[in-house]
What does this fold into?
Amino acid sequence: MQLRTLGKTNLQVSSIGMGCVTFGREIDQATSLEILDRALECGINLFDTAEAYAKGASERVLGEWIKDRRCRDKIVLATKVSGVLSRERILQSVDESLQRLQVDHIDLFQLHVWDGTTPLEETMDALNTLVKSGKVRFVGSSNWSCWQLAKSLLLSQSQGLARIESVQPPYNLVEREIEADLLPLCGDQQVGVISYSPLAAGFLTGKYGRGDTIPKGTRFDVIPAHQPLYFTPRGYDVLSRLEKAAQQTGHSMVQLSLAWAMQQANVTSVLVGARNLSQVDQAFSAEQIELDEDVMKLLTSPVIA
It folds into this structure.
């Protein structure tokens, strides 16, 4: 497993990160602990959760695992604050997360979504307070646009505040909007990129055909809002070319989708979620795949608008 420097920090994060969104929501604690053990064994050291995941249950599962395995010094721990990003809310949120995670500091504390109601100055000043206090080592953002990141970087520079060191955007063969501006900005300003949803919420696994009924319990059933993002002519065009690449290479559609995401320039780490041990193993095996020029061209050629 490769280790890469996150932004301008001294954090060394694995090229694959463990996304903990399924813990406490889609799988039980016993299965979650097995997955966490396997991830650590495979060399994954970045574990990403959020207060919003299963109303804090994900953080609690992760906290129990860290305490029981005594592995705090072996991992990079990341979580997120949601909702209104006022000073009071941020300071309260980090204390609640620290309690659920059963740790004394968080390596990467991220703003889960942009808050258009709270002045950015107030939000960034609160984050700076957390860094100075030692409760948080570094700060990042999730689901931010290019202009939002740029605004925060300018503010941090002008006022001497802790800056956003990483962004966490969705990125996969279908959803590639960040290539236009966010990725170039991150490369230029040395901001780490922790991408998520490399399998497009399961769309790129090949189990969803045109017009098929959504299986109960799947991600698209649990979160129906994902459906309009991928069940489109463009999405199915990507899917058909992915199927062709799988036939040509002998690799599964899952492996190819993950390998593509992991080999993109300016991406520091790719978060993978899991419901079972085999899904952790397939992510690890995908990292070993080198996609040649012809396969990359097939996967990323222009698609239907």
Remarks:
- The longest strand covers residues 136-142.
